[in-house]
């Protein structure tokens, strides 16, 4: 493993920053303290800082030479609304808030790279360090774009990475094309007429219609969508009624839809609305149907993905770079990739054996209350970002 010596020597200090951020988690668009910590560190290292994109975003600007070329490196900075079960010294001090997805670690890896880049500018051009808020449902990437990220900081490409529990530390996974799915929600209300449960003929019961609707939605996946196009419809909540002897006058259904392409998403949304309204009509019910598109699919660009694969292989060895198995999870880095070429890939977080005493009893998995980021990744991730930035800016321009 070809790690950078200065990043290795700086790792304890960056680890302290990471654990401080972990102990003070902030939710989407509330990351004021986190942004202050990031901006203070960058400023101390002589890196100019731009703040306020996406409300709490931070962009560090590292320039060298005369080239106008630029590349972006992104880390997300927000936490999740959940209670941490760990009891070690750097556990969350904020009840109901936790860095359970490793965004504190993503921030630390980019800060490690930032410190090295500031003192060892072995490139010609500009590296933009993009610390993005509100990945966990807030669409912070979209908001940074709306606020002018790519106009203020034009870049040839942007790269991002996510830690991945269960994959060994020191290993990576990368793939061209779709790697994370789109994330979408639906909300359906069926309105009928309430009645006594002993006299159902005097009412219009929405519950049987809801049951048929749930089953019918799955035929969209099995009979309308091409079998080779991935898609998932999950009805996750059904609410109706308040008493066992009363037929309710309404039933509410909610859930999610995930796809790897917008074409498949268009088909599923259209068919779901038709199925819902047609079943409601057949049962003489009124139907309210709402479909909310959150994050588009994350689709890596081919040339940038091959570039990442080559650089990771050179640093860690080809045997340490796996093929990224796409997941139906979602990632708002997708908004960046819709605007600018780039690649989003994985860095192994290990099996959880890195956790210090006092961790919770649960597994060290993403969005688990016993999770903690593996600090051994800080010098690895920092070296990774430096290698990618230097290689991109020093290669011949296409």
Provide tags for this entry:
single chain, 4-stranded antiparallel β-sheet, 10 helices, Aminopeptidase, 35% helix, 2 domains, Bact_exopeptidase_dim_dom, metal ion binding, Alpha-Beta Plaits, Amidohydrolase, Peptidase_M20_dimer, 398 residues, Hippurate hydrolase
Q: What is the count of helical runs?
A: 10
Rounded mean pLDDT is 97
Structural class determined from secondary elements: alpha/beta
Q: Per CATH, what is the topology of the largest domain?
A: Aminopeptidase
CATH class of the largest domain: Alpha Beta
Low-confidence stretches: none
What is the N-to-C order of secondary-structure elements (H for helix, E for strand)? HHEEEHEHHEEEEEHEEEHEEHEHEH
Q: Specify Rg, calculated over alpha carbons.
A: 24 Å
Strand content: 15-25%
Number of strand elements: 16
Q: What share of the residues lie within helices?
A: 25-40%
CATH architecture of the largest domain: 3-Layer(aba) Sandwich
